[in-house]
Structures
1.
Amino acid sequence: MIFSSSLLENAVAEFAKLPGIGKKTALRLVLHLIKQPAGDVDLFSTTVSRMRNEIKFCTRCHNISDKYLCNICANRMRQQHTICVVENFRDVIAIESTQQFNGLYHVLGGIISPLDGIGPEQLKIEDLVLRVNEEEIEEIIFALNPNIQGDTTIYYIGRKLRDVKIKITTIARGIAFGGELEFADEMTLARSITNRIAVEHYIGNGI
């Protein structure tokens, strides 16, 4: 692409750094912004800047938050004895969209994947174990992507909690093996949560 303005070129280059955004789409977005009132563009840039600089992570569940305790953890109307363990923030959003779960969450920040250099020590697993020991938790629900890495993570955490008297379940296999939660439709995901099963039923009796 040949640009008549270095300002335009630089803006397009920055938008093109976003995932799934090519240069043509980036150009279309930048040209759209040029047509908008200056105040609207200022609000857009200020909002993005504030989000990046002021965003926090919940000290309890590690979800994205405006404060040190996220709105979900701070809501005493939620079931305080049930924790849904997820891989990332997008999974929290996906499950919340089903309106079928009213407990708490724990964001691991990834799943165990030796080929990608991700081990248990890089995840928020010890924090989860600490929560189970310190809080009156009755059930852990694993809502991890149904693949080898997800199952490995469930097995590892299950071993860490084997001496704790707690119910451990996983979402039903309504989510296809190898699929990802964030791309599942809300009805399928809702049924998977409602019809969750005990972990040992599909991962064996090793836990």
2.
Amino acid sequence: MTNDLPIGVFDSGVGGLTVAKEIMLRLPKESLLYFGDTARVPYGNKSEETVIAYSRQIARFLCSHSVKAIVIACNTASAFALDTLSAELPVPVIGVVKPGAKAAAAITKTGNIGVIATSGTIRSGLYGRYLRSISPDVHVFGQACPLFVPLVEEGLQNDPVTRTMAERYLTPLLSKGVDTLVLGCTHYPLLTEVIGEVAGPDVTLVNPAYETAKELASMLAGRGLLKTSDTPSAHRFFVSDGEEQFRRFANSILPCELEEADVNRKVFS
């Protein structure tokens, strides 16, 4: 049955596991097929053409495993490749940018919204364009935070250097009076504590991973694709390199134990 097929999820590496986690919690019956492009991470400093090419390769791999939908669990790939994949693929595709932007537009009281993300996502301007299409009067202030991803992947979430960088990155946004801050990279929810402390109690953090899981559930329900059988969920994880490091990181995030991740480099062909 189509309803029993897995949901494809992909990211440039491990950050998309925050999206996978939220999907597992919201849709516990569903099975996931996750691909982390750990050999080519990060995407945030790559060109739009390169990110689209990588995204096409991974989407083709996921579709070869008969997924019923694809979630682009990477803000940079969502910014650059969502429209392309949506037009080319036979299954519905959602990204993480629009759900996060919708939530931010609904939450802000002052209209001043900050977006922290990779250089590629900030450079694309997609958050700003989409937010202004929802609410033309909002003011959107973007800040690239290129060191957050390597700090997370090195397990330095609680290190003093991470707080120092958070202060450096957030100070320009706070000076603009933002009351809402979009965590515009899937790694950043893992820094919620330090970002929240630096931003202060008057700034509401928006986690696009959580919002994406909500939108995915709504989309599947609207298309009659929610799993209805009682067969247990079965998740599979693929990476393009570094299986052991990925597995350790996954087991610190996911609500289930990951015993192994398959290394698959055929996606490059």
3.
Amino acid sequence: MTRHSTCSCGQLTADVTGEPFAVALCSCEECQRRTGSAFGFSGYWMEENVAISGESKAWARISAVGRRLEFHFCPTCGSTIWWVAEFLPGRIGLALGNMDHAGLTPVVRVWDKRRADWLDHLDRMDVFEEGRL
């Protein structure tokens, strides 16, 4: 199976083949800042299964446990598409909100102590199948 990931403007893309070795939700404060959401939703593939095209800019940071991560984003629209982490050599992380993530279910939650409390109540919220604005 091949999945296609793209930034908001379409300039930066990643195509991945096969299944990820991990799918995760991360609630660390850095993922919340990176996504502007309550968590990051990511999948991790071996780098030989990922083909990236387009121009990207990179920004690196040190994680809360002292490990380096380098994030690649579109210089036009700012969407983060992919990253590499020193603790996962030979692997690439992809932001799953930018691709068709059908069938990709998170198997792990990390930094759960930072998870938004309201996530426990999703099944009690009003639901609209499509946007109303």
